[in-house]
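thought: fold this chain, then report.
action: predict
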Amino acid sequence: MTHRTWSIGELAAATGIAVKTLRYYSDSGLLPVTERSSGGHRRYGPEAWERIGLIRRLRELDTPIAAIARVASGEQAIGDLVQAELATVQEQLTQLRWREATLGALDGCADGERLRRLEILARVQRLPKARRSLTDHWYRELPSEMPKRRLDLMIAMLSPEPSHAPSPASALAYAEIHVLVSTPGFTRWTGDHAEEMRDAPAFYGEIDEAAALTAAAVRQGLRPGPGAAVNAFVSAHARARRESDTPAFRRFLHALVSRSSGFDPRLRRYWGLLDTVTGGLSLNMTAAHAWLTEGLRLSIAETEPGAEDSARGSTDGTRPPRMARPGSAA
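observation:
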């Protein structure tokens, strides 16, 4: 073309875009008007051609007009727009995958079980809200004295982000977790934790060391036994209670942790469901607790001949055994 400016009709004829659509773009501020004719009609310059090309490409990606307007006005860079749109698409895909997993979990089961699954799966379709209900639960339940760094780690472990591509089994397990935490009395124990909490940061610092060593042993498939993990665990509790690491204290501590039996049965189920949700990537605290308990028993048997039977069956001690809250025993 040799024109320096074009009418809206000429732009429509050259681009194949309807006059009505171009007028909408112009009214929205997307097409800059260069001048007006003597009759008051809008005329468009070369920059309109560039703008139409940009609009057309972004509309091919189903980009909203409002987002294109922000780019056209310089309010938002194209790179930022791409990132925002990509995040939106990824969120939509996650929702679709969760719907697919939910339908898969409802398929092929008896009518009674299907109705039960439908009721609990409906709880977790709004993913941000569903995860927030889990994190809120654990913030209420975990000891308030727990150092923030450890508290955040425990919350992340106990309420993981929902998978972006769940299987029917993992979606159902995630829903079952919500059923468990809504059960009255879930993860509530009686017991005085004042002794361990007198210097909570120091106690949890040592417990963290024991937990890391135990996690490494469990993941490597090592058999329970005396060693660094058990020693760190005993040391944390002995220091917190102003006691010495003696065979007598180990018998007492073994009686205490044995009474918890790896936490409440519902919490053991919780960790099992977490394994399904995360694909086994998170440490199963029930397994870690059992490993430490058995390792502690064997350490008593090793250092005090004849004490194995006592360690296996004794429930007495100088203080009453107490149930352990998640994160305090391992």
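thought: worth noting. The mean pLDDT is 82.
final: tokens above.
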